[in-house]
């Protein structure tokens, strides 16, 4: 259910709108529910100690990458949501056109995902949300919490001569030994960000993903983004996910239904902390606490 700001306090409503736009993408709840053992019941979190041990399962001659995968919170996998995670100062190597596009996103573009526009690639690979991967005989499907998906064939298909632009691009899968490789071209450019921090990508973008399952409990990605219009060199990004609990799965999430916040959101990603990660907790000062006269939220009329 979407939350509706109380518009009687404009400053608070604006801050709350930023909070909501950040919460859409991403971050794990501050205090997850726990079971009788004290372990997390959250479908967004997983402890290394609880992961299954042993080798990765196999599906025929290849590792089976299927599973519900949640973000790792190891230092090497932070900050979440930032394509420049492994660059000094989180600064991506922009061309002049890239600098211009980034400036425009920050100053003029509302976060596309806050408007219920598909994040696509490479943004979904940097997301703080879990995803579900189902591997078949000649296709793999990635299911996301935004009730969207991408279908990747590994049946020997080749790229089209002139693919229709899409948010995830035209994706062609193949196997390199035990590594699942996805080669994607043909991206939309307008109204999309490369990550949560308003970094841009162009229609010239080419994304190469290499997915491995080193053991039963981990899934690893090495991704290279080539975009000569906006970046002076390939952008390298890597991270690891942890296997969720048995029974965890994505659920329906209708972003556009009752999306009352969209008209009130400002442009750009909001405050990004020195740790390279955006979030409502980066606001200075934080919104005032709710009062009787100005409650934090009201229910959406039924």
From TrEMBL:
<protein>
    <submittedName>
        <fullName>Uncharacterized protein</fullName>
    </submittedName>
</protein>
<feature type="region of interest" description="Disordered">
    <location>
        <begin position="30"/>
        <end position="71"/>
    </location>
</feature>
<feature type="signal peptide">
    <location>
        <begin position="1"/>
        <end position="26"/>
    </location>
</feature>
<feature type="region of interest" description="Disordered">
    <location>
        <begin position="257"/>
        <end position="302"/>
    </location>
</feature>
<keyword id="KW-0732">Signal</keyword>
